[in-house]
């Protein structure tokens, strides 16, 4: 599924949806367990999975950036900073599985924005295969 982009008064929201035949707990584990996370987003590692916790972003040059977890609700919500922006994952129970909703809140479009959006498509395709 392609991303939807909505103009807001303070920027943009990019939305992705993926439906899975898996339980919300199974989707949450792919989203948050480092052994599974590295299969779809290899440069992230969750250090402390809680609101106020940290995700490490491997710059692949020996250095790491700390990403702040803004909200974490077990089997439901994971929101974190993404440079000057925010990324929010929501998992919703559905009759035949679950729905994963990814929203990136973008303050300002840059030359890197299209790469970010394309990157999320690739990551979500990899997510689906874990």
TrEMBL record:
Residues 22-127 form the Activator of Hsp90 ATPase homologue 1/2-like C-terminal domain. Signal peptide: none annotated. It comes from the Bacteria. Transmembrane segments: none annotated. Belongs to the AHA1 family. This is SRPBCC family protein. It comes from Bacillus mycoides.
């Amino acid at each position: 599924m392609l991303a939807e982009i909505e103009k807001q008064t303070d920027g943009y929201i990019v939305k992705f949806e993926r439906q899975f035949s898996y339980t919300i707990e199974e989707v949450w584990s792919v989203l948050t367990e480092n052994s599974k996370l590295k299969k779809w987003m290899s440069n992230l590692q969750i250090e402390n999975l809680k609101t106020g916790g940290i995700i490490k972003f491997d710059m692949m040059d020996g250095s790491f950036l700390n990403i702040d977890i803004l909200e974490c609700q077990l089997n439901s919500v994971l929101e974190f900073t993404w440079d000057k922006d925010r990324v929010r994952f929501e998992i919703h129970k559905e009759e035949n599985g679950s729905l994963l909703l990814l929203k990136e809140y973008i303050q300002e479009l840059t030359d890197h924005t299209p790469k970010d959006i394309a990157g999320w498509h690739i990551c979500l395709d990899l997510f689906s295969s874990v």
